[in-house]
Design a protein that fits this description.
Layout lengths: L2 E11 L4 H11 L3 E10 L2 E11 L2 H17 L2 E7 L1 H9 L5 E8 L4 H13 L3 E7 L15 E8 L5 H15 L2 E6 L9 E4 L10 H9 L2 H12 L5 H11 L6 H8 L7 H10 L3 E9 H11 L3 E10 L2 E7 L5 H15 L6 E5 L5 H6 L2 E5 L3 H6 L2 E3 L6 H5 L4 H5 L3
Parallel strand pairs: 9-10, 9-13, 10-11, 13-14, 14-15
Antiparallel strand pairs: 1-3, 1-4, 2-3, 5-7, 5-8, 6-7, 11-12
C-alpha cells in the first residue's frame, strides 16, 4: 500500500483544545506526524501539521473529517499535497549548517528587518523560525527602558562568512540597529563563563579619569586614556604615564568614587540572570582592583583581575603592584578561569569596549563589543550599541519571560 503526504495549515483565532482535537482526528486514521509547528500573534493562530496517510479511502476520509473539525472549531484549514521527492529534499536540508541572527534595538522597524532578511535571501538561506525575545510593548504607556529583540534561526551553506557579516555591519551602521550572527552549535547553547571589562562596560565611566579630575590632572589623563582606548598608543605605556600623574592623591577619595560608580543600565539584570542559570562571571580590567572588588560585592561577581594601586602613608605613589593587566593579560586570565572551571573556551563570552579588550573578545567563544570604539566594533564577532548590558541575554537566546521569573 502506498502512502500520501499532506501539509495541513490551520489559521484563525486561538483557543484551548485545537491541537488535541485535530490530532485526535489524525489518530483515528493511523496518520504519522512528520512535522509540526505553531506560532501565535495577537491571539491569532498559525498551526501546521505534515502527516503521512495510506492512499485510498483513508486519505479521502481524513481530509473530510479534518475540514469538518476545523469548521466546528471556527478555524480555516488548507491542505497541500507533498510529493515524496519534495519531502526527501526537505529532509536533506536538515544536514545544512545552522546559524542564529539576533536583531536588537530600542525598537525594531520593518525597514531594519527587511534589510536583514534581504541579505539572508540573497545568500539562498532558509529562515526556519523567527522568535520574539522581548515582551510586548504598550503603545500608550511610555517605556522607561525600551528594548526589542527578535531571533532568526537560519539554515544553509555560507561560502564567505566575512562578507555576510560585513553586510550586517553596514546595515547596523546605516539603520541604527544591532545584528549579531552566530553559528548555532552546542557551544552557543551551553555558554558557562562571561568575562567583563569594567570601565565603560560594567560601569559608565573611566575611573582613572575620575581620579585624575580629583588630582587636578583631568585633561592630561583623559587625553592619554582616549588615545589608548582607540588603540593609538601602547596600553602599558599609557598606563604608566597616567599612574605618574596620580601621584600624591589621597587614599580617602577612593571610597567616595567607589560608592558613586554609575553601574551600566541592564548590568544588574544581566548578572542576576547569569547567576540564576549557573554561569560564572569575571571582571578582567585594566582598571583597579579597589573598584573591581567593590563591584564584585555589589553585583556578585565570581572573579576579579585588575591592577593594584600602590599606596604609602595614605597617598598614591604613582606606582602599581604586580603585572600590568593589559589586553594580552586579560585574554590569559580568561583562559586561566576557563581551565580552572573546566570550561571549554568555546563556552565563554567576553564583553568590552576598548582596543585592549580585543584579545579576549577574539579568544572567547563569543566576543561582544559593548558601546565600543569603531576599531573594536569592526573587529569583534558581535556588538551591542543600541541597548543596555542585558542585551547579552538576547544573544544567548533568553526570552524576557526567562529573565522576569527571577526579578
Amino acid at each position: 500500500m502506498t502512502n500520501e503526504i499532506f501539509l495541513l495549515n490551520i489559521s484563525g483565532p486561538d483557543k484551548p483544545g485545537l491541537t488535541s482535537s485535530l490530532t485526535n482526528v489524525l489518530s483515528q486514521y493511523g496518520a504519522k506526524i512528520l512535522d509540526i509547528g505553531q506560532a501565535n500573534i495577537h491571539d491569532t493562530l498559525s498551526l501546521g501539521f505534515m502527516f503521512e496517510i495510506e492512499t485510498g479511502n483513508n486519505s479521502a476520509a481524513v481530509l473530510k473529517d479534518l475540514l469538518f473539525k476545523a469548521y466546528e472549531l471556527g478555524v480555516k484549514a488548507k491542505f497541500t499535497p507533498i510529493s515524496l521527492e519534495d519531502y526527501e529534499k526537505w529532509v536533506g536540508l536538515q544536514g545544512k549548517d545552522r546559524y542564529i541572527i539576533t536583531i536588537l534595538g530600542e525598537k525594531l522597524t520593518a525597514e531594519q528587518i527587511s534589510e536583514v532578511t534581504k541579505v539572508i535571501s540573497e545568500k539562498n538561506l532558509n529562515i526556519d523560525a523567527i522568535k520574539r525575545l522581548t515582551g510586548r510593548t504598550s503603545l500608550i504607556k511610555e517605556e522607561e527602558y525600551p528594548r526589542a529583540s527578535i531571533q532568526l534561526s537560519i539554515r544553509g551553506k555560507i561560502e564567505n562568512k566575512a562578507e555576510f557579516t560585513e553586510k550586517f555591519m553596514q546595515i547596523s551602521h546605516d539603520l541604527d540597529v544591532d545584528i549579531a550572527f552566530q553559528e548555532d552549535n552546542i557551544y552557543r547553547r551551553n555558554r558557562r563563563l562571561v568575562c567583563f571589562d569594567m570601565d565603560s562596560t560594567l560601569i559608565q565611566t573611566e575611573v582613572i579619569d575620575e581620579l585624575a579630575e580629583l588630582a587636578g590632572v583631568g585633561a592630561e589623563v583623559k587625553a592619554i586614556t582616549e588615545s589608548a582606548m582607540q588603540g593609538e598608543i601602547d596600553f602599558n605605556e599609557s598606563f604608566k604615564q597616567r599612574m605618574q600623574l596620580l601621584k600624591g592623591l589621597s587614599e580617602d577619595v577612593l571610597h567616595n568614587v567607589a560608592i558613586n560608580l554609575p553601574i551600566t543600565k541592564g548590568a544588574r539584570r544581566l548578572i542576576d540572570t547569569l547567576k540564576k542559570y549557573g554561569f560564572k562571571t569575571a571582571i578582567l580590567s585594566g582598571g583597579f582592583t579597589y573598584f573591581g572588588h567593590y563591584l564584585q560585592k555589589e553585583l556578585g561577581i565570581d572573579y576579579v583581575y585588575a591592577n593594584q594601586l600602590e599606596i604609602k602613608d595614605g597617598l598614591l605613589t604613582g606606582g602599581y603592584l604586580g603585572e600590568i593587566v593589559d589586553g594580552n593579560k586579560k585574554a590569559e586570565y580568561l583562559q586561566d578561569i576557563a581551565n580552572k572551571e573546566g570550561i571549554d573556551i568555546s563556552q565563554t563570552i567576553a564583553v568590552g569596549d576598548g582596543a585592549n579588550d580585543l584579545p579576549m573578545l577574539n579568544l572567547a567563544g563569543l566576543g561582544i563589543a559593548f558601546h565600543a570604539k569603531p576599531k573594536v566594533k569592526n573587529n569583534a564577532q558581535s556588538a551591542i550599541s543600541s541597548i543596555g548590558l542585558d542585551g547579552v541575554l538576547y544573544l544567548l537566546g533568553y526570552h524576557d519571560r526567562h529573565i522576569d521569573l527571577i526579578e
